[in-house]
Design brief:
Number of strands: 6
Strand order of the largest sheet: 1-2
Mean pLDDT: 89
Bound molecules: heme C
Largest sheet: 2 strands, antiparallel
Structural class: alpha+beta
Helix content: 40-55%
CATH superfamily: Cytochrome c-like domain
Strand content: 5-15%
Low-confidence stretches: 16-25
CATH class: Mainly Alpha
Distance between the termini: 17 Å
Length: 248
């Protein structure tokens, strides 16, 4: 019986989902993404290709890799995702020369393949919904989770312009500082806040997939391994019982 209990305990431990690292403090919005949602992945890939790939690459992903997980044919990929004439077997690299981009924006736009693994889905969602007007910046905007960001607000026409809402707090050492506690829309975009939320969530879903393209397969395999372990524990229990019967 002990073998069985130990086996089940072990399975339970293996079952506990991995805790997500969360960034402490500050202004952070939360989003739920489902990398098994093919329609969301398709929309996310399309919007990424249209709005982000002018500057950012996904160098570790080849277009062809999108075929199965996103349920796209090679023709779909060529038609909806490739605008610079490269082949479907090529990596998703932006046509913008990095040196030129660095000159224009002060920083080269980084590769975003692993962005979700580094920053998390909540951070990325907050970043893409977190641009606000700031006259002090050369781009005219700042970002609530990325102070003094070099990226222009490429989504302003969709989301509309925002201004921050501040609250004064007193730090433990007695000094007062202003922190952003919210963002208020001051001019409308082409999307309603609800539509914009879905638009950003799709891009975050797509980038969650690029960061871990094999996650789904691994999870399926994990379920089978746990079931197999339970089966072995049961077999071990009966085997042990059978042996002890002979001895008694
Ligand atoms: C006009 C060029 C341009 C476009 C288009 C653009 N970006 Fe950026 N992006 C930049 C630059 C430049 C930076 C670097 C900013 C810095 O380090 O200050 C950046 C930074 C970022 C970062 C932060 C990376 C980090 O350091 O962790 C994310 C995330 C990001 N972009 C996502 C996107 C997404 C998603 C889109 C499409 C909706 C997009 N960007 C479109 C230029 C662009």
């Amino acid at each position: 019986m002990r073998t069985l209990i130990l086996g089940l305990l072990f399975c339970a431990i293996a079952w506990v989902p991995q805790a997500h690292a969360s960034e402490g403090g500050g202004f952070m919005r939360h989003v739920k993404v489902d990398v098994a949602d093919k329609a969301a992945l398709q929309r996310g890939a399309r919007d990424f290709a249209n709005y982000c790939m002018g500057c950012h690459s996904l160098s570790y992903v080849r277009y062809l890799q999108l075929e199965k997980p996103l349920g796209l044919s090679q023709d779909d990929i060529k038609k909806y995702l490739i605008f610079n004439g490269v082949k479907v077997g090529d990596p998703m690299v932006s046509s913008m020369p990095a040196a030129l981009a660095a000159k224009w924006f002060g920083k080269a736009p980084p590769d975003l393949t692993d962005e979700v693994r580094v920053r998390g889905t909540d951070w990325l969602y907050t970043y893409l919904t977190g641009f606000y007007l700031d006259k002090a910046r050369p781009t005219g905007v700042n970002n609530v989770v990325f102070p003094n960001v070099g990226m222009p607000d490429v989504v302003e026409n969709l989301q509309g312009a925002q201004v921050p809402e501040y609250k004064e707090i007193t730090a433990p050492d007695g000094t007062k500082e202003k922190v952003i506690v919210g963002l208020k829309q001051v001019s409308p975009g082409s999307m309603t806040p609800e539509q914009y939320h879905h638009w950003v969530r799709d891009i975050v879903t797509f980038l969650a997939w690029t960061a871990e393209p094999n996650k789904l397969e691994r999870e399926h395999l994990g379920v089978w391994i746990v079931l197999l372990m339970i089966l072995f524990s049961v077999v071990a229990y009966f085997l042990k019982k059978a042996y002890w019967e002979d001895i008694h």
